Amino acid sequence: MWHQISPRYVVSQIVQNVIFIAVVVTVGLVAFFGFEQSWVLIPAGVVIVLTLATLIILPRQARAIGYMLRADDIVFRKGILWQRMIAVPYGRMQLVDITQGPLDRAFGVSQLKMVTAAATTGVQIPGLTQDAAEALRDTLIQVAETRRTGL
Amino acid sequence: MSTQPPASANVGTSSLADGEWHRMHPLTPLFKGGLALIVIGGFLIANLRERLITWVVDLFEPGAHYDQYGGDPVDWVLSNNLAIVALLSVLGVVIVLIAVFWVIWRFQQFRITGDHVEVRKGIVFRSHRRAPLDRVQGVNLTRPFPARIIGLAKLEVVGAGNDANVELDYLATSTAEAVRADILRLASGARAARHGDAPASAPSPLSSRAQLRGEVNNGVTGMINGVDLADVAPHSVVRIPTGRLIGAELIGTLAWVIFFGLIFLISMGGVLIGTLLDGDPLGGALTIGFSLGIGVPMVLAIAGITWARISKSLRYSIAPTPDGVRITYGLLTTVTETLPPGRIFAVEVSQSLLWRPFGWWTIKINRMGGKSAAQQQSGNAQQFNIVLPVGKRADVERVLGLILPDAPASDIPLVWEHGILGPVAGDPYRTMPGRAWWRRPVSWKRHGYALTEFGLLLRRGTVWRKLAIFPLARLQGVSLSQGPIDRAQRVSGAQVHSVQGPITGSLSGLERADALELINGVSRAAVLAAARDQTHRWGEHAPAAPAPPLVVPVPGGGVPPSGYPAAYPPAPPAFGTPPAPPAFGTPPAPPAFGAPPAPPAFGAPPAPPVFGAPPVPPPVYRGAPPAPAETPAPQAPPVPPSKAEPHGE
User: Is A112 on the interface with B (CB under 8 A)?
Assistant: First the structure.
């Protein structure tokens, strides 16, 4: 069964992006009116358009992120156009890491990262609720303990 | 620390793994300080250069009076009558240096307990490093050329992780060999089981002078005969003829030399013609001289690099020991690596086009190296991952049998006939479909994978033929990726994740069903393989396991004399014909996830398959933790409980 991430992740990301846009707009306006640097408007505009584009596909992207606990491994998938799916056997997990930024904390979401001996595995599940992240971490560690191998 | 016996008592005793603190060899400070002395000597010579020149000139032409120098410190000292003071201060500096290195040596100690190897050193900045023995990835014994003459060696315990190595430098060679045997014995979990096998070379009653002379003799002998082969059966050793090794290196270099040489000759010829036409011999000569000035050092540099590479891998040998494979190489500076079983994450056999007429192959591995990032950039790190620099098919087979001793015999045709030598009739590999040929225009017929009970085999490349074997027991994960073009062609890229190393596990353009089977089957097979795998503590299981995972050569006893097939233990019951391993067979239907391997609790996925339409699953996961019922822990495969080894003696 695919689990999805919290919808609050989308809200949190939107707020972050809106703040970013506001900062860019402020800087651009100050540079334009305060210092009469009209060229600043071009990069600022490009950045704003790109961020807006990200905002539009953000809900869709968030829905494409999912993970599934199977008998022997955890499967993580993401991406719409370029889809990626990775299966990590439970016994291979070296550590499970939960990180939370300041805005994430305000919205009660956090990111869970799984580290294996391979540098390329890099599974990061963003936008889990705090409870879900901790429960998932405990589950993963518990399951990994029963299937422990050397490395 | 203060209760230590005199350090010289350490030399020659073979039981350093007694949990007590020990010091390095007493000659260590001299050897380490030697570098500083050389630097000081160089500084002095640079300062006294003028004086030396004068002295030489005066010697041959007494009347020349070449004394144009000024500001020489020696002159100043002599003119101020400070000779005694200067000599005393030089003496003082030397004494202080020796004292400093002696103190550093006093404070550097190591200890080997049942579970850890520890080194502590430093006076102001103290460091105490402790490495768990059950995560040891290998033990390297390096005999640098100067140290080797006086019988010293450096022992390096390779850990898993960045900058995780523990170095014991320097020990007497016989001590280092004993310590290596102790570390490997403890790491194997077979505590003291093979104690009697430890090299009983304890030349303690000798006087230190006679001992030193003996070490020098041994050093010279080792340089002629090769080292570290005393406890392995001679016929089990794979060696590379020197001629082949040099030839293989030269062929690679030759291609570059010819390439640059052609460019050089063409430009020189152009200059020559231009000179003759212009009738300006002076300018032409200058240009030619200039380009020769560039070309000659370049040739010298290439020769130097080639020689360095050749001398590093000269006198190469690989042999099985009770504690894993032992690889020895190097002419003047000899490195002996011991790879315990189960520390190899991927193996690749490859052959470049230039080597094909000779039938030469090379074998590389992915393994955990505890080196720091800076060390990984150096040339030694490249050597670290090469198991067989160059070898014929028979050598490759024997080395594969040594480093993958638990591979079943039924995999051998997959490796050779179907794998390395390319697709033949009845190809069991899942290859790229014809519609995706443009992704690998030359090698698309070869590009593919085969999954067995033991490992995942990736076959790639036509010009540069490669076959990679990833043992499932140590596979870190599998990922699929699919872009828009892939989706239109109903193919998918895949990557097998392994530890960092020269072997990457990426495939492209697989059939969708094949890719799904990869991600569904590999995890299941990996868990089964890991449950069977006993190499974590290889010594504990070796006697009892039904299929001994080791080629155990009793020292002095017998080893299967023939190579590859005999080196394999009797294969477990054949696990299905290669084309379709039924154990992992998944229906090619789109909702393949969670189908056969998953327990019923998982049910069918409500979401559409990942690579189909965009998933819009209704039950959005809102904050509730995953219910315990979903945790697949009850379905855990039978793992021996002894895996969670209690630490502490």
Answer: no
Query: For A121, which of B497, B530, B616 is closest by C-beta distance?
Result: B497
Q: Which residue has the higher pLDDT, B140 or B192?
A: B140
Is the CB of B523 less than 8 angstroms away from the CB of A143? no
What ipTM score was computed for the predicted complex, to two decimals?
Answer: 0.84
Closest Cβ–Cβ partner in B530, B533, B605 for A2 = B605
Residues of B in contact with A134 (CB under 8 A): 625
**Distance set, CA B101 to CA B2, B410, B585, B649 (Å):** 18, 58, 64, 35
Q: Is the pLDDT of residue B56 over 60?
A: yes
- CB within 8 Å: A68 and B605: yes
Averaged pLDDT of chain B: 72
* CB-based contact B615 A66, cutoff 8 Å: yes
In what order do the strands lie in the sheet containing B116-121?
A: B21-23, B109-112, B116-121, B127-132
Q: Tell me the longest C-alpha to C-alpha distance in chain A.
A: 66
Q: Is the pLDDT of residue A47 over 90?
A: yes
CB-CB neighbors (< 8 A) of A67 in chain B: none
Rounded CA separation B268/B289 (Å)? 10
Distance CA B101, CA A113 (A): 46
Domain-by-domain residue ranges, chain A? 3-62, 67-146
User: A141 in contact with B at a CB cutoff of 8 Å?
Assistant: no
Which burial class, exposed, middle or buried, applies to B217 when counting CB atoms under 10 A from its CB (0-12, 13-18, 19+)? exposed
CB B604 within 8 A of CB B594: yes
Question: Quick one: B29 exposed, middle or buried, by C-beta within 10 A (0-12, 13-18, 19+)?
Answer: buried
pTM for the structure as a whole:
0.71
The answer to whether the CB of B496 falls within 8 A of the CB of A89 is no
Total residue length of chain B: 649
Closest CA to B362 of B468, B473, B449, B450: B468
Q: Is A75 on the interface with B (CB under 8 A)?
A: yes
Report CA dihedral (B511, B512, B517, B523) to the nearest 10 degrees: 110
- Count Cβ atoms below 10 Å from residue B7 Cβ, excluding itself: 16
Q: What is the C-alpha separation between B504 and A119, in angstroms, rounded?
A: 12
From the CB of residue B503, how many other CB atoms can be counted at a distance below 10 Å? 22
Task: Say which residue, B394 or B19, is predicted with more confidence.
Answer: B394
Please identify which residue in the block is written with the tokens 């504990």: B540
Name the residue of chain B whose CA is nearest to A74's CA: B523
CB-CB under 8 Å, A6 with B623: yes
**What are A83-96's pLDDT values in tens digits?**
999 998 887 888 88
Residue B617 pLDDT greater than 80, yes or no = no
More confident call, A69 vs B164: A69
Residues B510-543 pLDDT 10s: 999 999 988 888 878 887 887 777 666 666 654 4
Chain B positions in Cβ-Cβ contact with residue A83 (cut-off 8 Å): 480-483, 487, 610-611
Among the four given CATH numbers 1.10.1660, 2.30.29, 2.60.120, 3.40.50, the one describing domain A67-146: 2.30.29
B526, A90: Cβ pair inside 8 Å? no
At B628-640, the pLDDT tens digits run: 333 333 333 333 3
Q: Read off the pLDDT of residues B410-440 as tens digits, 9 standing for 90 and up.
A: 788 888 888 888 788 778 888 889 898 898 8
pLDDT for the residue A18: 93
